[in-house]
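pasting for ref
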Amino acid sequence: MNLSASLPLLVLALTIEAAFGYPQRFYAAIGHPVTWIGRLIGGLDRSLNREAASFALRKAMGVLALLLLLAVVIALSVLIQHLCLSFGLLGLIPLALLASTLIAQRSLYEHVARVAEGLEREGLDGGRRAVSMIVGRNPQTLDEPGVSRAAIESLAENFSDGITAPAFWLGLGGFPGIAAYKAINTADSMIGHRTPRHLAFGWAAARLDDLVNLPASRLTALLLVVSAALDPTADAGGAWRAVRRDAGKHGSPNAGWPEAAMAGALGLRLAGPRVYGETRVNDHWMGDGRAEANAADIRRALTLYKRSCGLLWALAALFAALTLL
């Protein structure tokens, strides 16, 4: 699929997902494509990741598992794309419907908005319950500013991983591009951890995920800076300064870019020291504003996020139009 077809496909997919999301009744009935990919990853983990094997062998088996995962996902997605496009331009519609399930604009907004609602309606307990659905850190260690920062950080990071990156690879590589990206990203989330079981086996998934997310993390930061420039209550200059100063200090090679941009735009400090389960992570702060975030700041972040999603759609539409000239 060339750009003159993949970019209109991207515009359609973004539009469909923003309007409808992934209906809950579909999830209840058939699950979700990411859960299907997850089952394949789980099977490969159980079959190939033998604890008695040496570190080097487990690392090699992790590479093999990733290659097998990508071979299956890409082969199926190429077949699906070929079948859809055999109907001509009308085939873009079912293909866009399928691609839209791998983008998370609407669901990300809803999950983060529930944290603000929880804090506003039920106080700290409500905020902790809602934020526990979207972050891995221990919610019982979080006060109200901690809950609010965690929600905003999740919004910024997942904007890159859940929207910009799949959109980038859909526009560049068609349906196989976005399917392969989601396979890599899901593998990283399941086995790309520095735990005794997955330090070796998940090495390839974690490193490849860092690579495929690199362009989207930078693009997401730029979208947030431009969105801040269009919002009189946000600080585009602060966003740009925070990105230049702090993004590279984050423990992740990619997460720091959108988090720093969001922090600077809102006049906050994000990231910093935090607790995942029983493990304390002493990360650098992103931004130099106040750390005392609240539900109103989550709402401000959501407004910036919605505007950035609109800019992403406009950018895709512009490039799609240029390819058709």
